[in-house]
Amino acid sequence: MRFLIFFCALLLLQISAYCRFRQKPGPEEVVRRWQDYIDRNKFDSARIYSTELARSYIDFLDAITQGDTTEITQTTLYELGCDIRGDSAICHFLIEGEMGEKIPDTLILYKIKGRWLVHHVEGFTVIPVDTLQPGDEDILFPGDSSDVEFE
Questions:
Q1: Could you give the 3-state DSSP secondary structure of residue 88?
Q2: What is the DSSP letter of 25?
Q3: Tell me: the pLDDT tens digits for 30-60?
Q4: Is residue 3 very low, low, confident or very high in pLDDT (cuts 50, 70, 90)?
Q5: pLDDT digits (tens, 9 = 90+) for 53-91
Q6: Which of 122, 117, 131 is nearest to 55 (CA)?
Q7: Dihedral angle of Cα 40, 42, 43, 45, to the nearest 10 degrees
Q8: DSSP per-residue letters across 26-67
Q9: Residue 97 and residue 107: Cα distance in Å, rounded?
Q10: In the predicted model, is pLDDT for residue 137 greater than 90?
């Protein structure tokens, strides 16, 4: 009888550990993993935790590093906290700047098919190359200034 009770308790413990192991990461853990992959230039791994919008940011980073994986940084996230509302989360945290100052940063995550994914990176916007920005219509090109001739 004791053996049966011991066996049942052990089985319940294993089931509990398995369920905890299979649990999908929450927004805080996704932010930490995502940032770690970005720091180590493992952009393909970071894309796994990203929506299409965040993938454009990763594509930008991948293009400027041009496959150079030698430069690895370690970003420490301070005071990471996420405000979860339904299938959205806004995660605020501080990162350390070059001079040691704490800089506030924010990531927006969406829960899609049960998985938290980074959706929006604060301060990053994809601007199409062929699009004028406000005020660009007033830019004078060399052919527009009739007073000066270039030789």
A1: strand
A2: P
A3: 999 999 999 888 999 999 999 999 999 999 8
A4: low
A5: 999 999 988 888 876 666 677 778 899 999 999 999 999
A6: 117
A7: -130
A8: -HHHHHHHHHHHHHTT-HHHHHHTB-HHHHHHHHHHHHHHTT
A9: 17
A10: no
Q: Which of 49, 53, 103, 51 is CA-nearest to residue 75?
A: 103
Token duo for residue 85: 């509302």
Per-position b or e across 90-109, b if 16+ CB within 10 A of its CB: bbebeeeeeeeeeeebebbb
Q: Which residue has the tokens 């919008």?
A: 53
Q: Which residues contact 38 (CB under 8 A, 6 or more apart)?
A: 46, 58, 61, 75
Which domains are delineated in the chain? 25-128 (3.10.450.50)
CA distances from 16 to 6, 27, 29, 115 (A): 15, 22, 20, 21
Reading phi first (left if > 0) and then psi (alpha if -120 to 50, else beta), residue 116 is in beta
Return the amino acid letter for 67: G
